[in-house]
Amino acid sequence: MVIESSFAVQAPPQKVWDFIVDPTQMVGCVPGCSKVEQTGENTYRATMSAKVAYITFSANTEVTITRLDPPRELESVAKGEDKRLGSNVQIAATLRLTPQADGATEVAYRADVSLWGKLGTLGEPVFRQKATQMGKEFAQCVKSKLEGQP
């Protein structure tokens, strides 16, 4: 399933880029992410959890940045497994930053999400609704941090 969205941030692309590639800042803006540690040059381990319908998914997730084109584009792959649920998730994501005429930056993302196990039985509409909610929370957090709003 593909999930796409975008939002504008009143900040130049380089400032947005610096924020997005800093895991210590991003951990607070990714819903359900409680911890991130760098394990290699472009690899990270994140502790993620999310409640989707009646299922709570919790996993150590391995994230690999597969392509960097600063300050314009970043591609990554994330893989996580919740052994308790017998569920797996894999996300191939692209994030693009586009400067706007007013000095703002459009942040656009596209995620190709694959689900297996119990989590996969929920169906696309249920998961899409949760992903949309999480995307809005992410956008609001990034905007507030970079625009200085409470």
The succession of helices and strands, N to C, reads: EHHEEEEEEH
Strand order of the largest sheet: 1-7-6-5-4-3-2
What would CATH call the architecture?
2-Layer Sandwich
Number of helices: 3
The secondary-structure class comes to alpha+beta
CATH superfamily: START domain
Q: According to CATH, what is the class?
A: Alpha Beta
Tell the overall outline: globular
Helix content: 10-25%
Strand content: over 45%
Q: Whole-Å distance between the termini?
A: 33 Å
Please specify the SSE layout and strand pairing:
Blueprint (H helix, E strand, L loop, with lengths): L1 E8 L3 H8 L2 H4 L6 E6 L4 E10 L2 E15 L3 E10 L4 E13 L5 E12 L7 H24 L3
Antiparallel strand pairs: 1-7, 2-3, 3-4, 4-5, 5-6, 6-7
